[in-house]
Recover the amino acids of this structure.
């Protein structure tokens, strides 16, 4: 068998590239790498989340083709990832998604995959989504659909550590610093659990890119770098300028957090930045000067700082 031939599109979830970012901090002495989750089939880290949630019930026969599946998603990217998995397996997806998280682009993608969208508002405009209410609304919808499958839990296994295992396998030694956005809780919690279990000396930097709070908390999640919307936009644009990488807002937040800390990291340190998605879906927002002027305002310049080492 040719091991370079994948057995279907979902076999391309994970094993995303780990690349050197040589232009991001060329004079710092740091070795900087990025885990590019945009190379998942729908373009985001949420493909891992969706497949992780649905694969076991698919294998056990708990979900079968034609059976309605009802899921809740607090982001448009997660909804699209659910939609692709369900379309691949012939499942009838009904997704209850936070209205404020679904753009015109997300709606078009969901319709293309054949998903039925129930867009709801669980919080006042501009407020954080209420995950509990989203789940209850999904439960109520499932009760109206004969034979509907509704996962027992609203989220997949939070200790899934496939991403951090891929990172370790791709490097000659374990990273000294791992930067992960709070908006990717499955990856974040999985990384924290893996570092604890294997007693690694890697410092996990939690990039708090959630504008309304709600970041995951727990053991190993103590070093937190909050990032503003303007800093996230600046990070996206700096990465595009220096590396030719078009990434999404959360990826920009990771770059901004790294830019703030890099002057405090010891020379020679190995840093891995988890970049959750690509920037194509942000062309008319993060990369639009008119949108940034209207919605964000002044974008700061990300500068190298010169402080004492973190450790």
């Amino acid at each position: 068998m040719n091991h370079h031939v994948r057995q279907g599109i979902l076999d391309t979830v994970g094993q995303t590239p780990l690349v050197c970012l040589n232009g991001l901090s060329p004079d710092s002495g740091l070795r900087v790498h990025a885990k590019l989750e945009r190379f998942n089939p729908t373009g985001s880290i949420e493909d891992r989340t969706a497949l992780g949630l649905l694969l076991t019930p698919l294998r056990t026969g708990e979900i079968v083709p034609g059976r309605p599946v009802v899921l809740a998603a607090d982001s448009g990217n997660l909804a699209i990832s659910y939609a692709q998995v369900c379309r691949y397996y012939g499942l009838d997806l009904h997704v209850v998604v936070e209205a404020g998280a679904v753009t015109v682009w997300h709606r078009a993608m969901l319709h293309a995959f054949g998903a039925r969208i129930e867009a709801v508002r669980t919080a006042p405009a501009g407020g954080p989504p209420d995950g509990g209410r989203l789940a209850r609304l999904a439960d109520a919808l499932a009760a109206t659909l004969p034979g509907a499958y509704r996962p027992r839990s609203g989220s997949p296994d939070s200790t899934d550590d496939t991403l951090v295992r891929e990172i370790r396998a791709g490097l000659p030694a374990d990273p000294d610093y791992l930067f992960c956005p709070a908006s990717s809780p499955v990856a974040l919690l999985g990384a924290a659990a893996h570092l604890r279990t294997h007693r690694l000396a890697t410092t996990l930097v939690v990039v708090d890119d959630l504008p309304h709070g709600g970041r995951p908390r727990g053991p190993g999640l103590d070093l937190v770098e909050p990032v503003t919307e303007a800093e996230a936009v600046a990070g996206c644009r700096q990465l595009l300028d220096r590396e030719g990488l078009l990434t999404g807002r959360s990826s920009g937040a990771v770059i901004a957090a790294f830019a703030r800390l890099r002057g405090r990291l010891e020379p020679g340190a190995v840093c891995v930045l988890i970049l959750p998605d690509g920037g194509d879906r942000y062309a008319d927002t993060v990369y639009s000067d008119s949108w940034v002027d209207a919605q964000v305002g002044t974008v700061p310049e990300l500068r190298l700082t010169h402080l004492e080492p973190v450790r």
Summary: Strands lie at 18-20, 31-36, 68-73, 92-98, 116-120, 177-181, 203-208, 224-226, 270-275. The chain has nine helices and nine strands. Confidence is low (pLDDT under 50) at residues 153-158, 304-311. The CA atoms of residues 47 and 81 lie 5 Å apart.
